[in-house]
Amino acid sequence: MPFSLVIFDLDGTLVDSAADIAEAVNRTLHDWKLPTYDVAQITGWVGEGSRKLITYAFRHAGSDVDIDEVMPGFLEHYGDTALDGIAYDGVVDTLATLHARGVKLAVCTNKNEEFVRPLLEVRGMLPYIDGIVGGNSLPERKPSGVPLKHLAQEASVPLDRVLMVGDSESDLLAANDAGVPVVLVSYGYRKSLDIHGVGALAVIDSMPELLDVPGLREAAATA
Fold first, then answer.
1. Residue 205 predicted with pLDDT over 90
2. Residue 179 and residue 132 in one domain
3. pTM of this prediction?
4. Is 31 among the catalytic positions?
5. Cα–Cα dist 97/91, whole Å
């Protein structure tokens, strides 16, 4: 049965935002006179939302400061860098093709929602996106399946017609919790996740390969 709704993770799936996230984290660490870290180190902390990211960074730097005191500064710095994320090759064309096939598209990310829409707009993706849930949109975020269920309900699509596409354990767990299949990308910020051994519907090396995944290939025939 063709999928009617595809829900995408953002960072590490649609856009490579590692450098701009790292810049915001390092500016915040510098504000507190703490050591800074390279992009690879900070990327390893990405995926669970801004608060967890900053908590990991500050605890790694040996600081036990109240993160509530840190977050306003981080969000200000991130506001300065949030539009720097670059779309991975083939992403925009893939979204356009799925949209033309009549497949609804949504984004579910743990990034704060106020940063999501402007980034999608500047990278040319927003016209194809039907729904957005950020990390501060609902009482629960990934790895909970609640955001996926919310997007499916908003789109009036039953869960058995929904597909999740992501790069991390958080995406996998959210899909499992919502009871929907998941496609994992081999690039992105997956940390130590064994993407080939977790029961994903498919593992793809580039976004255009998504168009040939079972359930989306059929969508082309019915478009």
1. yes
2. yes
3. 0.91
4. no
5. 10
